[in-house]
Design goal:
Layout lengths: L6 E8 L8 E8 L4 E7 L9 H7 L3 H7 L1 E2 H12 L3 E4 L2 H14 L9 E3 H15 L7 H17 L8 H24 L3 H11 L7
Parallel strand pairs: 1-5, 3-4, 5-6
Antiparallel strand pairs: 1-2, 2-3
Helix pairs in contact: 5-6, 5-7, 6-7
Length: 209
């Protein structure tokens, strides 16, 4: 069985992008593909609603009240499942705002869970794979640029995000998997000439006699 890192990709949908907007849907996908998605029944004090936002995510207020899970239950579930995970989002400033509002409304500390930018885990993953495969550090920058640009192009070719929490979180997990796979494949194709050349560049030159 693969030794999956304890990371999760998280996404929110919101009632609006205004100052008083609030989270209406959250989903996360773990590195191993395990996933959860929850519609969030609005707290009684949450009233801001943007019809334009609804045309994007397609979730109505009536559906939230009929099918949504209470705020406190969603927040507790997230804390129970995700506390030991590093959490990543493509827009951590926005998603962090929704996460903080959800936690506060549930009576939990606003920093009980923290979000980081997915770009950080992309770079970290490339670095860890190259290190594990004993690739000379002089090759890291070039390989990282190659891997990340190829993976991002493939992701861009899929078109715009769906603006549903689970679909978007799944897409981020797949992008991460693609980055890890590409790094392993490209590093595995390096021949001895590449390796020895990089090692030679790292060795201090000997003073001439």
């Amino acid at each position: 069985m693969p030794d999956w890192p304890k990371i999760a990709f998280l996404d929110f949908e919101a009632s609006s992008l205004g100052k008083h907007g609030y989270p209406i849907e959250v989903a996360w996908v773990l590195s191993n593909g395990e996933e959860e998605s929850h519609l969030i029944r609005p707290d009684p004090t949450w009233i801001d609603w943007d019809p334009k936002a609804q045309t994007i995510h397609g979730i109505s207020r009536d559906r939230l009240h009929a099918e949504g899970t209470p705020v406190a239950d969603v927040a507790r579930r997230m804390k129970d499942v995700l506390t030991d995970y590093a959490l990543y989002a493509t827009a951590p400033s926005w998603d962090g705002k929704w996460l903080s509002r959800l936690l506060r409304a549930a009576g939990l500390p606003r920093h009980a869970l923290r979000l980081q930018d997915t770009e950080e885990v992309h770079r970290q993953t490339v670095h860890e794979v190259l290190l594990g495969m004993s690739i000379p550090t002089d090759l890291y920058d070039g390989l990282m640029k190659k891997v990340l640009s190829q993976a991002q192009k493939k992701d861009n070719d899929l078109g715009p995000a769906e603006h549903r929490a689970l679909a978007d979180a799944r897409r981020e997990q797949r992008l991460w998997l693609d980055i890890r796979r590409r790094t392993q494949e490209i590093a595995g194709r390096l021949d001895d000439v590449d390796i020895h050349s990089a090692k030679a560049d790292q060795e201090p030159s000997q003073p001439s006699s």
